[in-house]
Design brief:
With 301 residues, this protein is α/β, with parallel strands linked by helices. It is 40% helix and 12% strand. It contains ten helices and nine strands. Helix 5 packs parallel to helix 7.
Length: 301
C-alpha cells in the first residue's frame, strides 16, 4: 500500500469538475462559513470537529471551501470501513482521505500536512436522535496525543444543519435492523463485530431519503497551542486535558451555530427565494415610483 504522503492532488480539470458537481448541493444548502481565517495555509496542523449523521453529507463542502479560500488540500482521516468498499475507496483516496490509523496521521503531520479528524468517528455518524449534536469523545485521546507529538496546533471546528435534514425512522440499534447487522458481521468479518457500523434509517424530504433543504453552518475557532503539553504525549491525564479543551471549544462553536440557525430568517431555500423575490419586487416598485430614474446620483463630490 502506498504511503499517504505520496498522494498528489487530482488534476485541475477533475478539481473543476468536482467543484461544479457540488454547485447544486451548495445551492440546496447555501452554506455559511465563519472563521476560515483560523485555518492555517500550511501545516502541520490538526483540524478537529464533530461528525454529523451519516458523516459524508457536509464534509466535502468543508474540504472544497478550504481549497477555494486557501488553495490547500486538507487530508481527512476516515473510518476503516471506507476502505472495505471497492470503488468508493478509490474515490476517497483520490480526494486525499486516508485510512484513519495513528501511523497514517503521524506520517502526514510529520510531512507538514493539514489533517482533519473527527474524534467521535462512526459513533457520531450513526448516533441516535436524542444524541443530536452531542460530542461522543469519551476515551478518544489519539488525536490529542498525535498533535502533541507533532507540536502542532489543533483548530476546533463545528458543523450544524445536517441533523435537521433527516428524521430517523429506525435507530441503528433497532431490533428491526438485526438482520442487517447480522449480514454486516458476515460481510465485514472481524470489523463487522463493531456496534457502530450500521447507520439509522431515516426519511428526508417527505417520505424520501433526499435530505431536506436546510442551510449548513460551519465555524472554525482559534487554533489551540499544544506546546504546553510537549513531552507529555504518553500521559493520559495530560492528553485528557487537551481533549477536553478541544471538545469544549467545538461544543461552544456548535452552540453558537445552532443559535444562528434558530434565528436565521433565510434558513431554507423557500425563505431565500421569497426574500429574493421580495427584494426584486421592491427594486421594481422603487424604479417605477422614481420614473425609472435612480433616486440620487453621486457626482463625485
Amino acid at each position: 500500500m502506498a504511503s499517504p504522503i505520496d498522494w498528489t492532488p487530482p488534476p485541475e480539470h477533475l478539481i473543476r469538475a468536482a467543484d461544479m458537481a457540488l454547485e447544486p448541493w451548495r445551492a440546496w444548502t447555501s452554506p455559511v462559513f465563519h472563521g476560515l481565517e483560523n485555518v492555517p495555509r500550511r501545516g502541520p496542523a490538526l483540524l478537529s470537529g464533530n461528525h454529523t449523521v451519516y458523516g459524508i453529507v457536509d464534509a466535502p463542502l468543508i474540504f472544497f471551501e478550504i481549497h477555494r479560500r486557501h488553495g490547500v488540500w486538507v487530508r481527512s482521516m476516515a473510518d476503516h470501513l471506507h476502505w472495505q468498499l471497492p470503488g468508493w475507496r478509490s474515490l476517497m483516496t483520490m480526494g486525499g482521505s486516508v485510512d484513519g490509523t495513528r501511523a497514517n496521521c503521524r506520517a502526514l503531520l510529520r510531512a507538514g500536512q493539514i489533517v482533519v479528524v473527527f474524534p467521535g468517528g462512526a459513533r457520531e455518524a450513526t448516533r441516535a436522535r436524542h444524541d443530536r449534536y452531542r460530542l461522543q469523545w469519551d476515551g478518544r485521546l489519539g488525536f490529542a496525543r498525535l498533535a502533541v507529538e507533532a507540536g502542532c496546533p489543533i483548530v476546533p471546528f463545528g458543523s450544524v444543519g445536517v441533523e435537521e435534514m433527516f428524521t430517523p425512522l429506525l435507530e441503528s440499534d433497532s431490533r428491526l435492523l438485526a438482520p442487517a447487522r447480522a449480514l454486516g458481521r458476515v460481510v465485514m468479518g472481524e470489523r463487522g463485530k463493531r456496534d457502530d457500523l450500521l447507520p439509522p434509517v431515516s426519511r428526508g424530504l417527505g417520505l424520501t431519503p433526499i435530505p431536506r433543504p436546510e442551510r449548513l453552518y460551519f465555524g472554525f475557532g482559534e487554533p489551540i497551542d499544544t506546546t504546553p503539553w510537549a513531552g507529555h504525549a504518553d500521559d493520559d491525564a495530560a492528553m485528557s486535558e487537551v481533549r477536553d479543551l478541544v471538545r469544549k471549544s467545538v461544543q461552544d462553536i456548535i452552540d453558537v451555530l445552532r443559535a444562528e440557525q434558530a434565528a436565521d430568517p433565510l434558513r431554507t431555500p423557500l425563505r431565500r427565494l421569497a426574500h429574493g423575490a421580495g427584494e426584486h419586487v421592491g427594486r421594481t416598485v422603487g424604479r417605477l415610483l422614481r420614473g425609472g430614474q435612480p433616486a440620487f446620483r453621486w457626482n463625485g463630490r
